[in-house]
Automatic annotation (TrEMBL):
<feature type="domain" description="FecR protein">
    <location>
        <begin position="133"/>
        <end position="222"/>
    </location>
</feature>
<dbReference type="InterPro" id="IPR032508">
    <property type="entry name" value="FecR_C"/>
</dbReference>
<keyword id="KW-0812">Transmembrane</keyword>
<keyword id="KW-0472">Membrane</keyword>
<dbReference type="GO" id="GO:0016989">
    <property type="term" value="F:sigma factor antagonist activity"/>
</dbReference>
<dbReference type="Pfam" id="PF04773">
    <property type="entry name" value="FecR"/>
</dbReference>
<keyword id="KW-1133">Transmembrane helix</keyword>
<protein>
    <submittedName>
        <fullName>FecR family protein</fullName>
    </submittedName>
</protein>
<dbReference type="InterPro" id="IPR012373">
    <property type="entry name" value="Ferrdict_sens_TM"/>
</dbReference>
<dbReference type="InterPro" id="IPR006860">
    <property type="entry name" value="FecR"/>
</dbReference>
<feature type="domain" description="Protein FecR C-terminal">
    <location>
        <begin position="276"/>
        <end position="343"/>
    </location>
</feature>
<feature type="transmembrane region" description="Helical">
    <location>
        <begin position="88"/>
        <end position="112"/>
    </location>
</feature>
<dbReference type="Pfam" id="PF16344">
    <property type="entry name" value="FecR_C"/>
</dbReference>
Amino acid sequence: MRNKEEIQGRFKELQDRFGRGECSVSELEELELLMEDERSADHIQQHMYAELEEAQYPTVHTFNKSKLFDKIKGEIVVDKKEGKLRSLYLKLVQAAAILIVFVLGAGSLFVYERVTAEKPQPTSYCEIYAPLGSKSKVVLPDNSIVWLNAGSRLKYSNLFNQVDRNLTLEGEGYFKVAKNKKIPFRVDADHFIVEAVGTEFNVRAYKEDEAIVTSLVEGKVKLEHASEKIADNIYLNPNHKATFYKNKSKGNNRPRLIIRPNVDLSPNIAWKNNQLILNKERLEDLSVDLERMYDCKIHFNSEEIKSYMFSGTITDMGLNEILDVIKLSTPVNYEVKGKDVYIGRDNKRIGKFKKY
């Protein structure tokens, strides 16, 4: 018959082999028998107690001594067919933690958990860029979907959907947010923050634009600024559009933030479906979108024609096709040289058109 030291030594050996995944079926059966035998089980308790005293772990929970130890013994089952050992104790070992049970006084049993200290995970970032002339569709780690318009950039850390759901947007993005009430979804667009739980919205925040425009399609979002006080508890409901001007107005008392309800959002989100919906759009403003869509540079030969306006829907057209439509609708001519487009006034046709 083995003495206490032999039993404790063998238990420790089997425990270590299990932790390394090296136990055979016969060794698992031996470990089961050690826990079944009253005398060896008592020695094992003493072994656990000695480990605990040496390590001096803090208390986590308090349990009834006999009840818990009987539970540990009762849950040790060897599946001879699969060669697996299931137990409360050994499950925790397998998960990189050690459950230590020991006797203290005349009826208390304490459980301690020792977890291997891990180094903090270094922060890294993922950045997605939609080049000029193209769009990108991104599925985020939380299953949210983002469409990026041409010339746009999206950035988030490796902790996304673990610690937070924070993103940084430069340009324009349409967001279809997966629901997660515990971790809000936050888009930082040049320090203007759009926060949601589960919703669909569009944010336009190109650096060269004077304003950041948020259009809410579905759900509800909260608006705030990272460094400036706008107002308290600002929310958007569906079909609301918020326009935040980056710089304070000079002399015209224009509000920094304007919210418009019951807006037709089609022109704001049509880009996602490769469309442009225009309603009396100035050619100068339209040219900015065209430059991003087709990775070109548009030059106007006349200041006057910048104010010509264009209305209509552009769907899946090439650059030359769009320029032809503009030519039909306004008194202009155009010439394409590589990535440069030159638009000038057509004096022969000027009398046939009305300037809005």
